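Section 4.2 – Deliverable D4.2 (structural model, holo form)

The reporting period included a commitment to supply a predicted holo structure for the target in complex with phosphoric acid mono(formamide)ester. Inputs used:
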Amino acid sequence: MQLSTRHLLGIKDLTPGDISIILNTASQFKEVLQRPIKKVPSLRDITIINLFFENSTRTRISFELAEKRLSADVINFTASASSVSKGETLLDTVNNILSMKVDMVVMRHSASGAPHFLAQHIPASIINAGDGINEHPTQALLDALSISEKIGKLKGTKVAIIGDIMHSRVAQSNIYLLKKMGAEVTVCGPPTLIPKYISKALKVEVSYDLKETLEWCDVANVLRIQLERQNQVLFSSLREYSLAYGISRRLLDDLKKDIVVMHPGPINRGVELDSDVADSKHSIILQQVENGVAVRMAVLFLLSGGRNPSDN
Ligand code: CP
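Output (structure tokens):
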């Protein structure tokens, strides 16, 4: 069980075999996380820095917990409280940290490609915890584990990714992963929030009709409207967006079947998802968060050269 890469920069670089190894390893770590003592010694003597240049709740806590469950030494870095605010470059910052004998870097950055740049210049393994509008690979992996657990398979499963596709690293990583694993993917949203050539470039179907898309899919992965990444007005108002593309209880009740609802968080309740959908039996949002810890344990374990979690 060995990955074909020493970094996790994006799902784009992974083989279907890599994805299967990570998901299988995550399932084994889920079993570890059910034990009374949830800590294993796999990463003892490994030091990991969590470099967050952008805000995060789920990803940051999940990585820190995964690292601690694996007995790694953990350092947390917040850009706003660092010498970055005095003008220090990304490379200088990271090289200074690595000189203190840090082995692995988990990084979130608002610039697409920041972890790829770092990977060309430093010796440590890098895990991308979300870079700009490019990729969020561990989110796609935890989404895939959640779909596999709920539906029983990825191959042939019909997944709709709904909302702000244009600005979403979650959408891009999910599309790469789902297509590599044989799922069917449709992206759905207003034309202004769907990249023009996505159907040809990423081999997905495109729909502007929410009801039709929900009738088609087994799983609806609903995305947040990312106002912080939009530098122009791309729809008339949040209220109108919600009327056309928000998922309400009534919409789900009118479908001829049950579907699974996912969301990577944070949710804009009442915009892309109503509360009585987010908190309903259709929703697996909190299972996604739970699976994040096991998936991140698997990625850290495998990139550090680990082979068999059940040896722990
Ligand atoms: N899903 C996700 O990346 O959430 P955070 O921004 O809170 O980490």
